[in-house]
Each structure stands twice: as structure tokens, then as C-alpha cells.
């Protein structure tokens, strides 16, 4: 069972959601940047990836994750004990329309969209490498 009070449960769940979203969003941004550099080299030369750009992208990643992680603190969704009661996370059993919308938004914008972007990015990279390899073989 959960050994601490509701405030610690909320903090534990908030940190889990925040760092999980930061992780997946960082991977999404990384795959997108790699795709732009490999598949669109002309664009890569125009947009010189610098520490400043990396900093802006990291700020965007954290802002995006914070937006979804703080939503349950603002009563859009909620944090609570997991079904077995040993840890805390998002309350997946929606008790209201707003909670259902939060879970749906979380699924679409924090899971489905990032996974699709990663899949498309790496698919484009693989396709570009394959086409380049064929071109090199022909010459």
C-alpha cells in the first residue's frame, strides 16, 4: 500500500509524469532534428544547429511536458494511487468529462503524436540512406 499522504502521492505522480514526458519528447525532438539534418541537408546548412538552438529546443521540451504534468494540479485530470496502491500516477479511471478529455489529450499529444513523429523521422532517414546507397552503387 502507499505509505505516505496524498501530497507526497501527488508529488511522486507529478515527477513521474513530468520526467516521462520529458524523456519521450526529447527523443521526438532528437529524431526530428536528425531527420532534418540527414534528409534535408540544404535545410541543415541554413539552420546551423548551435548550443543556442539546443537550449531553445530543451526549453520547449520542458514547457510541453510541464503543461501536461501540471494539468492535474489545475483540476484537469488527477493524480492518485495506482489500482494496487503501491505507487501513485495519473488516475486513469476517469470520473468526469474533464478527466476523460485529459486522458485523451495525453494519449494523443504525449504518446501517439510523438511515436508517429519518431516513426516517420527514422523511416525517412532509412529511406534517404537507402536511396543514397543505390546512387553510390550506380556511380
UniProtKB/TrEMBL annotation:
The keyword Membrane applies. It comes from the Eukaryota. InterPro entries: GPCR_opsins, GPCR_Rhodpsn, GPCR_Rhodpsn_7TM. This is OPN5 protein. Keywords: G-protein coupled receptor, Membrane, Receptor, Transducer, Transmembrane, Transmembrane helix. Residues 1-139 form the G-protein coupled receptors family 1 profile domain. The gene is Opn5_2. It is found in: Membrane. It comes from Haliaeetus albicilla. It is a multi-pass membrane protein. The chain crosses the membrane at residues 12-40, 52-74, 101-129. GO terms for cellular component: membrane. One of its GO terms (molecular function) is G protein-coupled receptor activity. The keyword Transmembrane helix applies.
